Amino acid sequence: MADQSLLSAAVLGIVEGLTEFIPVSSTGHLLLLGHFIGFESAGKTFEVVIQLGAVLAVLSVYSAKLWQVFSTARSDPKSFRFIVAVALAFFPAVVVGVLAHDFIKRVLFETPMLIAINLLWGGVVLLWVDRMRLTPRYEDATDVPLGVALKIGLFQCLAMIPGVSRSGSTIVGGLLLGVGKRGAAEFSFFLSMPTMGAAFAYDLWKSRHMLDSGAMTEIAVGFVLALISAVLVVKWLLGYVSRHGYALFGWWRIIVGGMALTALLLGF
């Protein structure tokens, strides 16, 4: 039984890393897959905490750029403004996350039908936005104005509903607000670091009394595999969306959401 749980944790960790930074909802995939394979984590903490592995993937890929931004923040207004922009975009998620944490974990995370429906309509929205003839005003993530950054942060709050997708909501928000396809994805990467780091710390603290050695082992396995697989996705994604856009991910959401919804309606 323990081996089966660790195997499930490994599979879910790989899925987390592969889906965290593409706009398909990693949490939605984890919760639906966990439902169908019978994986139950204490307080649904596993599904949140292993996301830190994906955050470390961004840190490893963007370490040089992060160092450049923070080391020049005092002398370069553009670097300082970018740090403030990410902080502003992060702020709405803090407020909503703290106020709605228990409702999200106890109700929304436990509703597979809602997750499948969100995957479906989110895929339609992604296809619609990808086909719009939008004229980008901000090609680079560091060019995003403070007001636009705050609005992207409000879009991110939609991802508190599992199945919506954190990266999907921020990327769609960025595209609609005039950020280019590559810049929107990159800004979403940087915003993921404080957002998911805070979610990791807060959820781990709230659920600390429910975690035994078995749960911590599952988290460790999922964490490591999420890190490895996320590194591959981060390196690949920016080049792909620059050339092809987001239609592939819209269709993926529709297919996965449709299959999950059908299975749930059939009683699985």
Overview features:
268 residues; globular
The helix-strand sequence is HHHHHHHHHHHH
Number of helical elements: 12
Radius of gyration: 18 Å
Task: Flag low-confidence runs.
Answer: none
Structural class: mainly alpha
Strand content range: under 5%
Structural commentary:
The chain is mainly α. The protein has one domain (2-265). The chain is built from twelve helices and no strands. It is globular and about 55 Å long. The two termini are 21 Å apart. 44% of the residues are buried. The mean pLDDT is 87.
Blueprint (SSEs and pairs):
Layout lengths: L1 H18 L6 H12 L7 H5 L1 H11 L1 H9 L5 H30 L5 H20 L14 H11 L9 H11 L4 H26 L6 H32 L2 H19 L3
How would you summarize this macromolecular structure in one to three sentences?
This protein is mainly alpha-helical. It has helices spanning 2-19, 26-37, 45-49, 51-61, 63-71, 77-106, 112-131, 146-156, 166-176, 181-206, 213-244, 247-265. The protein has one domain (2-265).
